[in-house]
Design goal:
With 211 residues, this protein is an alpha+beta fold. It contains eight helices and six strands; from the N terminus they run H-E-E-H-H-E-H-E-H-E-E-H-H-H. It folds into two domains: 30 residues, no CATH class; 131 residues, 60s Ribosomal Protein L30, Chain: A, CATH 3.30.1330. A four-stranded mixed β-sheet has the order 3-6-4-5. The longest helix has 21 residues.
């Protein structure tokens, strides 16, 4: 009897796991490995003040919009690719008038630290001015910061395009904005959600090409 019981427990243990590490039932169906409820938990943390609204929106911005543009060597001129990315940033930023942003300028490691500090500032200025030209209020763009050559993506003394960049990030909320003052953060999310559902669909040809 004991032998049969041990074999039964062992068989159940084998049926409860698969090689991917997911827990499964007897039909092989995957059971949630631990992510179920994360969205509700995040909402609760935001609403109770345990999770910063700015952090939550910052993560969303980084996930939905490219936050980085790159530059040619020793240049602060925006090329076509940079302008296209900034257009997407501006579209996203305009949807959230309660939110403020900061633009960080960076360079590669070629040249002196003092020169690169100024170059990083020029690049941040170029990005900020373009966002303003696309309808973003200058008052919502925080004081510019230049990190110069101090925070490279790729550590190399050679010219490196990936280091020649600006990064746009959420920095906080507009002070005394009524939506934020009244604690009505849900209206920020709900407004954008409704707007996203009323935007026109892309042409059928575009949809077909995406498959």
């Amino acid at each position: 009897m004991k032998r049969h019981l041990i074999l039964g427990i062992a068989a159940f243990g084998l049926a409860a796991c698969d090689p991917t590490g997911f827990v499964t039932d007897e039909a092989g169906r995957q059971i949630d490995p631990g992510n179920f409820g994360n969205a509700s938990m995040n909402n609760m943390l935001v609403q109770t003040g345990q999770r910063s609204f700015a952090i939550a929106l910052g993560e969303r911005f980084a996930a939905e919009v490219p936050d980085t543009i790159n530059f040619e060597f020793d240049s602060a001129v925006l090329d076509a690719e940079a302008r296209a990315i900034l257009d997407r940033q501006a579209d996203w930023i305009r949807q959230f008038p309660e939110v403020r942003f900061r633009v960080y300028g960076h360079t590669d490691l070629v040249g002196s630290a003092a020169y690169n500090q100024r170059l990083g500032q020029r690049r941040a200025n170029a990005a900020l001015n373009y966002l303003v030209s696309r309808g973003v209020s200058r008052s919502r763009l925080e004081a510019l910061v230049s990190f110069g050559q101090t925070r490279p993506v790729i550590v190399t003394e050679a010219p490196e395009r990936r280091n020649r960049r600006t990064v746009t990030e959420v920095s906080g909320f507009v002070e005394r904005h009524p939506t934020v003052l009244d604690g009505q953060y849900a209206r920020i999310v709900q407004r954008e959600y409704v707007a996203s559902g009323t935007r026109p669909l892309p042409p059928v040809s575009t949809i077909r090409q995406s498959f």
